[in-house]
Amino acid sequence: MDLSELKDLENGRRHPWELARLQIIKKQLRSLRKKRREASLQVLDIGCGDAFVVASLAADFQEMQFSAVDINFTEEQLSELNIAHAGKNLAFYQNLTDIPSSDHAKTDLVMLLDVIEHIEDDLAFMSSLHQHDFITNETDFLIMVPAYPGLYSSHDDVLGHYRRYTNESLEAMLINGGFRTRHLSYFFASLLPLRYLQVREEKRTGTKKEHERSELVQWTKGPFLTNLVTSILTFDYTIGRLLHRVGVKMPGLSNLCICSFRES
Q: Which of 1, 54, 126, 199 is surrounded by the most beta carbons within 10 Å?
């Protein structure tokens, strides 16, 4: 969730989309740990927003070291977060250049979780990451972005998106930025009909709904319904992942990409 939305969060209740996405990210971390045969990984979350995801990951993967960066942090927020997590495996920064090289000699994984759609020049941003010594050709990237330009709606306007992606457009941008992709897929197919109907209604009426807040901060349902929808979305991802392994490529409301810089 963006920092700008935190003040509007209803009763601290998280949307099932956020909770299911967190489970997917945890699966990706476990997969990376298995691939590298190493438990103590260095993870960098760029654009961490309200820190819900990275704090949850740090609590569940205490053998890993997490750094979280968001340019929208105020000095007060940074101080509060770092005091709250002092002595733990998580540190917060406002900029990448603030990360002490001695504390982060290498990065095993960079997470960009629904971040680059907020950046006007996504290609320049992605290309610039190679200038940091702790991000190397051995660093993996986990990228999530909203899918399908045709589904751009008032929801995207509220969130400050510049674009939505197809797998092809995301891969083309990354290749131009010096990356090679190892995995590219869509997920959350079950959410597509709802978003399609919303966009179709906006086009039919010729007007976009004036949302003051995004849908993520308006979730007010109780634990039972929250857990049920979260389980459905997590199952949705699992089925899509299994089908992808046998060559069946499902659509979805979001893109997931795993990539790294190409060898020079």
A: 54
